[in-house]
Amino acid sequence: MSIDLSELIGRPVIIGGGAAGLMAALRLAPEPVVLLSKSPLGAEASSMWAQGGLAAAVGDDDDPALHLSDTLAAGAGLCDEAAARQIVQAAPAAVDRLAELGVAFDRGVGGHWRLGLEAAHGRNRIVHATGDGTGREIMRALIAAVRSCPSVTLLEGVEARRLIVADNAIQGVVAVRGDEALILATTRVVIATGGIGGLFLDSTNPAGCFGQGLALAARAGAVLSDLEFVQFHPTAFDGPSRPLPLLTEAIRGDGAVLIDETGARFMAEEPGAELAPRDVVARAVWRRRAQGHRVFLDARIKPGRDFAARYPVISAFCGMAGIDPAVDPIPVRPAVHYHMGGIAVDHAGRSTVEGLWACGEASRTGLHGANRLASNSLMEAIVCAQWVAESVAGTPRGIGKPREIAAIPPAPEASAVRPLLSDALGVLRERGAIAAAICNLLPLAETGGASADPALVGLMISVAAYAREESRGAHFRSDCPDTLPVAQSSSFTLSQTIVAARHIAETAQPSLRSALP
Question: Which residues are listed as membrane-spanning (predicted)?
Fold first, then answer.
């Protein structure tokens, strides 16, 4: 189908077809909007895979102030308290809005929401759909709503490659459909492209999620913040499949425990035990495995025989591996799951580039700080997407004056980057390994080839991790194990990252500089 670009001039362009992008498009209605998705809707969206649900203070014994308190505690001093308060206060209304759009959340006696418990939450406040299929159910409803919304022009199979910027203001989007280049003239762009798990060998994210939105924003001159904070989920299914299937934290909320192959419950003496913050549990599992043990999630007693009914998706993939969770411990390992850092935005989702907004995992709102509280991510995506849409709608329409592009950047490919980041930026990190990754990533980021954009994002994460000489939340430096008394966010532009990376490479030991030209 041909695309008449003249009809789309001046319309807001949303890049990304996950929950945040879909919700932003719906909230902008009836204003005409263009939604770009590089694959068919739902095919490569992390939102589709989300099992845990949405965190919202909707229970009779709960309150947004309690939700805020748990969020700040998990964030290890780096949350923006004002932003976090605003977001968690809006969470109950977001649940109601999704229900209005047709999301079939699980209900208990009397028709009230059935609420689950997850790590570091002080109350049962996780709203689920079909047990462990929350993301899939939310995406089903949102996709149906978008496809039937006349104000949304949906361009599937179209990938954004660059943002066109003049005088720090958006002028257009360079996109590709097959071999065809598309230049969309607009002064309003929303990045909602998801996370960075595809930059690592072991991740629960789709392989295609490797920080495209961060690369677009960085090359446009935007500030990115707290990129070093990469959350590892402690209980990914330990098997050959990639991405690694996730075993939701809700299983531990139902009473499942972590054991090794000897049956020892190694988290029992930790504060919070299996429901300690994710970074604590992930490091414990990582260390146990490093000692030569295998680690298992033991759900045989709790939830026991109810497992298949409570977690049908997980039960199905365990069954394909020959495991019955009611009678067999489930092998697990940590895997990259969520990125707390991202494009620095204000409370309306505006970046430091005029006309550029971000929402969802690609943004850094200040809600998550150094360690995301379980199930706050889907909630943040829905809440903030609506605020971004309101801000976009309140910004005067501009035509945009996109310049001619000399060459379309190649399709990004992350295979060369994955082993570098996996070695240097795992659950435990160390200065020398990070420096080695920087030395190897820098030439890839500067080549302009297919590896350039993934390497650029990896380089920015690595430089931020190198600069943070402390351990805080999900960022743990074995050579700097202490937490500094004052928490400070990190912020970098692309040019600042390149300068820092070259300095690190020039001062690195000769053995680390072998990759440099």
Answer: none
Closest CA to 516 of 421, 442, 416: 442
- Count structural domains, the chain: 3
Q: Domain boundary at 349, 364, 393, which?
A: 393
* Of 31, 45, 40, nearest in space to 381 by CA: 45
For residue 77, being part of any structural domain is answered with yes
Q: Encoding tokens for residue 511?
A: 């053995």
In order of 280, 335, 427, the CA distances from 229 in angstroms are 14, 14, 10
Cα–Cα separations (whole angstroms), residue 396 to 73, 171, 249, 391: 39, 14, 43, 10
CB neighbours of 450 closer than 8 A, spacing ≥ 6? 410, 411, 412, 413
* Spatial contact of 374 and 128, defined as CB atoms under 8 Å apart: no
Residue 30 preceded by cis peptide, ω within 30: yes
Distance of CA 211 to the CA centre of its chain: 9
What does the block give as tokens for 36?
């770009």
* Of the candidates 220, 222, 274, 279, the residue with the CA atom closest to the CA atom of residue 252: 274
Residue at 219 is within a domain: no
Say which DSSP state 113 is in: B
Distance CA 513, CA 517 (A): 9
- Which element (helix H / strand E) includes 253? helix 250-253
User: Does 514 score more than 60 pLDDT?
Assistant: no
* 277/83 Cα distance (integer angstroms): 21
Give the length of the chain.
517
Give the list of residues 6+ apart from residue 436 with CB closer than 8 angstroms, or none. Answer: 423, 424, 508, 512
Residue 443 domain boundaries? 410-515
CATH of residue 423: 1.20.58.100
The Cβ of residue 433 has, within 10 Å, a number of other Cβ atoms equal to: 21
The structure tokens listed for 363 are: 């943004």
Pairing mode of beta strands 54-55, 126-127: antiparallel
Say yes or no: 22 and 123 in one domain: yes
Same domain assignment for residues 171 and 242: no
Residues 6+ apart with CB under 8 A from 187: 10, 169, 170, 171, 355, 397, 398, 399, 400
Q: Which amino acid is at 39?
A: S
Same domain, 23 and 103: yes
For range 450-471, the mean pLDDT: 98
Catalytic residue among 11, 278, 350, 472: 278
pLDDT in tens, 281-296: 999 999 999 999 999 9
Answer whether 39's CB lies under 8 Å from 16's CB.
Answer: no
Query: Is 418 a known active-site residue?
Result: no
Per residue in 227-272, pLDDT tens?
999 999 999 999 998 999 999 888 998 999 999 999 999 999 999 9
Q: Is residue 404 part of a domain?
A: no
The model's pTM is 0.94
